[in-house]
């Protein structure tokens, strides 16, 4: 075996591991199966790429998208690593190169889609080729509880067995307790080593606003991010086209992306976004998975995402380089109605629809949270944190009122019905509605029956979401969406702790106070620094010449490091972040020339 730290520096150009990587790498090298949950941008790929280079054997990587395979293979080959993929976009020469490298034992990492691996011939060939590690990216797709369940991913447990029970590492950024349990059940015969390295992305500023002239709100946000790369998500294809046109007229370099576009047009726009700086991609959710561009400085949602997991994954495409990045989500009642109708009109099973309803409710609770958004978001994934100071609620504050009585009414109704019911049944009790279920169960005789007639159903739903965001109640997602009371909720019910709730989300939109303010990402080098701009221009030219994303040449962090250190020799260039031996040999002369031209 070779020293992992030496390979980390010599191949990838990194002097140290990122937080959480080393424990996972060491566990894989020790021969353990692994399930790793790490936030987007934490460097999950390195957790299987590095062990592959430390020891002998072929690593088979399951990846959901051809574009993602293409970019990762290109990045590895730029690091001097033999890598390839099995996909329908390969030309005959590439297929021949891959087959020869696998046969000769030179191939180190081979990427394939789950659909390709479902073919028994392909799996048998790979089993004969000596696969020593199976790496499953986006592993939440395995689970029916995951927000992006894919039936073909559910077959991977069988693929693993056909490969001889090969050592496996499954990686994801979004997996709650139910999803993690399902992944383990479907993929592993025995419990793997589990690494949960947190869901927090402290470099992301979180902000949400109820819609009030949404186009104006978006433009106010974007005005802080001119000449920066970012993504705006829209709910429909038509909306992406219209907004991209409006942005172009306002002087932004914006382009649309959605599934209704011709494949060639989508590919062209995606390549421009990946290779050039200062591009705004206006897209539906068809764009994003596998987009590993590290210098995305903002992500905005022009409409409510479909779930809290989708929101987390989509904002996670900003700031993957660890630098400050900005997010904004706009939401309105129309968005909520649209998302609910999409769930009800889908072909999913009733069980899956129930899960999706609860996920949407959790997202709306985040929108209406009365405390730090990061606290509410992380609580959904089972984590606790102090107020972050980097979200709109921490920075701007909200209009609050003493909601102790309202909270106690909700908590009492939940307790008196045995903590066995969901939102609508609890609210019907408070409203005094004699539904069939309430009459059959005798809940019209409870002390809390009818005590909430002073408020509307819409207000009670908001109040319930708020006490959920505060951690007074918990949602049992895998048990029919029933509400249970937490220890803190018990304290509130007994009158031992007061509760403050948001008044503004109970008001009509025009009554709300408008609270704005966004924070642009800052760097140690100004964005208009002449050397940094020249380095980016060179990177763009090389990326176009080699037909790869710009980050495959060098990340923004590497360029900033060059602009700060201004290396004068190949040896000094080799100490720049992200410069391994292969990139030193390939690019040192070109980038050193630019640095020398700006020596003064």
TrEMBL record:
Domain Helicase C-terminal: 214-361
Highest taxon of the lineage: Bacteria
Keywords: ATP-binding, DNA damage, DNA recombination, DNA repair, DNA-binding, Helicase, Hydrolase, Isomerase, Metal-binding, Nucleotide-binding, Zinc
Enzyme class: isomerase
The protein's Enzyme Commission number: 5.6.2.4
GO biological process, one term: DNA repair
Location of the Helicase ATP-binding domain: 25-193
GO cellular component: bacterial nucleoid; cytoplasm; replisome
Gene Ontology terms for molecular function: 3'-5' DNA helicase activity; ATP binding; DNA binding; four-way junction helicase activity; hydrolase activity; metal ion binding
The keyword Flavoprotein is annotated on this UniProt entry: no
CDD domains, A to Z: DEXHc_RecQ (cd17920)
InterPro entries in UniProt: DEAD/DEAH_box_helicase_dom (IPR011545), DNA_helicase_ATP-dep_RecQ (IPR004589), DNA_helicase_ATP-dep_RecQ_bac (IPR006293), Helicase_ATP-bd (IPR014001), Helicase_C-like (IPR001650), HRDC-like_sf (IPR010997), HRDC_dom (IPR002121), HRDC_dom_sf (IPR044876)
Cofactor(s) listed: Zn(2+); Mg(2+)
Catalytic activity: Couples ATP hydrolysis with the unwinding of duplex DNA by translocating in the 3'-5' direction
Domain HRDC: 525-600
A Pfam match: RecQ_Zn_bind
NCBIfam families: recQ, recQ_fam
Protein family (similarity comment): Belongs to the helicase family. RecQ subfamily.
Protein name, UniProt field: DNA helicase RecQ
Species for this entry: Microvirga brassicacearum
Lineage: Bacteria, Pseudomonadati, Pseudomonadota, Alphaproteobacteria, Hyphomicrobiales
